[in-house]
Write a structure and sequence with these properties.
There is one protein chain. By secondary structure, the chain is an alpha+beta fold. It has 2 domains: 141 residues, 2-Layer Sandwich (Fructose-1,6-Bisphosphatase, Chain A, domain 1), CATH 3.30.540; 115 residues, D-Maltodextrin-Binding Protein, domain 2 (3-Layer(aba) Sandwich), CATH 3.40.190. 36% of the residues lie in helices and 27% in strands.
């Protein structure tokens, strides 16, 4: 499995590929619409192909599941047992990228035995590389990353919330009776997790994430000392394991704040 010195190699591979495949095309590509209504650019495909090749050169025994593969290909890879699996979102924040908004990233996780073991999320616009190893910690550009505990209360917090993917009653409740100081939504799920991990915002809610959206970011968040996870429904239990089904993401910089945030989210479902 990946060790600390190998994680540095993964970071370098991701950074070089992102600079050459994403930044080199930024503001110079047009977007097409996929069957699910989301956008795709030539940069998405170029980045996925580049990393699939580069990672296979160094770790030929590992498979790769990419966002831009077919659902059948993804399901077959996820169902295979006994083989480590890279999980890649080659361009997280494609809508931002296509619009010329410099907030997008690359998300790469290494999964083995159903558990995420290593993670890299790179923001090429800011040259910020977040990474983590299971049980070893999280880093930002090689410096240890620890989520700050403050603030103590929800009313003092900055929230990162994607309102459009929430149930109507909950979205309306949060919009018209916000329990936090301020709210943001930047458009890159992988970076959302990392920004909570670094304390740039303190609570987080997203109503529908796929495996490639959360696999890397969730490990970086948990290894930073922040707390949160995935749900099938807003009042249900925390989920483990891997799935291609959309999941709800809920997080905060510390456990007391997460308890306050989850209570408010649950209450908001009734309007």
């Amino acid at each position: 499995m990946i060790e600390l010195h190998e994680l540095e190699l993964v970071r370098r591979l991701v950074k070089v590929a992102a600079d050459e495949e994403l930044l080199a095309r930024f503001t110079r590509v047009s977007a097409d619409i996929k069957t699910d209504g989301s956008l795709i650019t030539e940069a998405d495909l170029a980045m996925q192909n580049r990393l699939q090749r580069d990672l296979a050169d160094r770790w030929p025994a590992y498979a790769l599941l990419g966002e831009e593969m077919t659902v059948d290909e993804q399901q077959e890879l996820l169902a295979a047992s006994g083989r480590p699996l890279w999980c890649l979102d080659p361009l997280d924040g494609t809508s931002n990228y296509a619009a010329g908004i410099p907030f997008f990233g690359v998300s790469l996780a290494l999964i083995a035995d159903g558990v995420t073991r290593a993670a890299v999320v790179y923001d090429p616009s800011r040259d910020e590389c977040f990474s983590a190893l299971l049980g070893r910690g999280a880093w930002l550009n090689g410096t240890p990353l620890r989520a700050p505990r403050a603030p103590a209360t929800l009313s003092e917090s900055i929230a990162m919330v994607d309102l459009k993917r929430l149930p109507g009653a909950l979205a309306s409740s949060l919009a018209h009776n916000p329990p936090y100081r301020s709210q943001r939504s930047f458009g890159s799920v992988a970076l959302d997790w990392c920004w909570v991990a670094s304390g740039r915002c303190q609570v987080y809610l997203h109503g529908g994430q796929r495996l490639w959206d959360y696999a890397a970011g969730q490990l970086i968040l948990s290894e930073s000392g922040a707390v949160g996870g995935l749900l099938n429904d807003y009042a249900g239990d925390w989920l483990d394991g891997l799935s291609l089904k959309p999941r709800i993401a809920l997080a905060a910089t510390h456990a007391d704040l997460l308890a306050q945030w989850r209570a408010r989210v649950t209450a908001g479902l009734d309007g």
